[in-house]
Amino acid sequence: MSKPKQRPAAPDAAVLEPGLVVATYGRHCLVETPEGRRLICHPRGKKNQVVVGDQVLWQIAGDEGSIEKLQARRNLFYRQDEIRTKSFAANLDRVLILIAADPEYSESQLARALVAAEAERITPIIALNKSDLAQPFAQAWERLAPYRAMGYSVVPVSLSPRSPVADDGVAALCEHLTGHTTLVLGPSGSGKSTLINRLVPDAQVETGEISQALNSGKHTTTSTRWYWVPSLDRSEARTALIDSPGFQEFGLHHIEPTRLADCMPDLRRYLGGCKFYNCTHLHEPGCAVLAQVEGEQSAGTISARRHRIYAQLFEELSQQRW
Ligand SMILES: Nc1nc2c(ncn2[C@@H]2O[C@H](COP(=O)(O)OP(=O)(O)OP(=O)(O)O)[C@@H](O)[C@H]2O)c(=O)[nH]1
Ligand SMILES: [Zn+2]
């Protein structure tokens, strides 16, 4: 009597190791082990497409690794590089939106980034850089008044190490970052590299190493990267910054237009007070949101600019569904 054939043991079960995705480019990524070793990994199959911040299980395959399992994500931040290329980061505590007195920031882009963070319930922080440029800074600070009023932390900073400003605000900003994982976003020229270089002394070395490891130096400037910030670690939690290039239009396609007002704290306050339960807050009579929009005759709590941004986004998100 022949013995029933034994099924081979699951080949990989014993050798799967945990890791953190610290950089991505195209199909490959860099994974850091709990001991701090970094190696190139390739996702197995389409399903395991990873983003920076992902926790994975991987196994060795030659001198590189193969990602076998993607652990469940706490959140996933969406943004869009080009029409079709989306890139993300996962498992974030904070999104830092770094804008500057100069170049002038786009309020629409700021609003989009905030909506994207709210949709994933990630706490946003706004930092306004270049406080040494007194006049443009005062103007930019004033434009941010609605964002302060709706409860966001808006931190004035002067990140340039040569800054002549006595209190450069960096300590206050660091308070928000300590012990957390923060995705840093901002338009070109706002000071993202200046911030990373200031808080991560080895950033340039690390960037070089990552470029070398990924063996595509010319492309890696467009990738998203994870940096540890040892100087801000707390005993119970490490501090990390994720640097993501550009501040292009955000694809907010994953948000239903009817959810939009709920992702804008100044509008959210009044939801539930409208006459119609399916109010779009654009033109309906008895709309509690519209009643609060600042006008020539009325002094509401919602700025007219913010309501215009809401209306534009609402239309854009509605069109995508046709
Ligand atoms: N006046 C002033 N200039 C600053 C300050 N912080 C940064 N800068 C300057 O602003 C310019 C842009 O800073 P970067 O750190 O390169 O900006 P970035 O956001 O990384 O820009 P991209 O790489 O294009 O995305 C540089 O010339 C910095 O020296 C500041 O606090 N005050
Ligand atoms: Zn309404």
UniProtKB/TrEMBL annotation:
Its main location: cytoplasm. It is found in: Cytoplasm. InterPro entries: G_CP_dom, NA-bd_OB-fold, P-loop_NTPase, Ribosome_biogen_GTPase_RsgA, RsgA_GTPase_dom, RsgA_N. The keyword Metal-binding applies. Residues 79-250 form the CP-type G domain. Zn(2+) binds at residues 274, 279, 281, 287. Its EC number is 3.6.1.-. It is an enzyme of class 3 (hydrolase). Binds 1 zinc ion per subunit. Residues 90-248 form the EngC GTPase domain. Gene3D superfamilies: Nucleic acid-binding proteins, P-loop containing nucleotide triphosphate hydrolases, Probable gtpase engc, domain 3. One of several proteins that assist in the late maturation steps of the functional core of the 30S ribosomal subunit. Helps release RbfA from mature subunits. May play a role in the assembly of ribosomal proteins into the subunit. Circularly permuted GTPase that catalyzes slow GTP hydrolysis, GTPase activity is stimulated by the 30S ribosomal subunit. Monomer. Associates with 30S ribosomal subunit, binds 16S rRNA. HAMAP family: GTPase_RsgA. This is Small ribosomal subunit biogenesis GTPase RsgA.
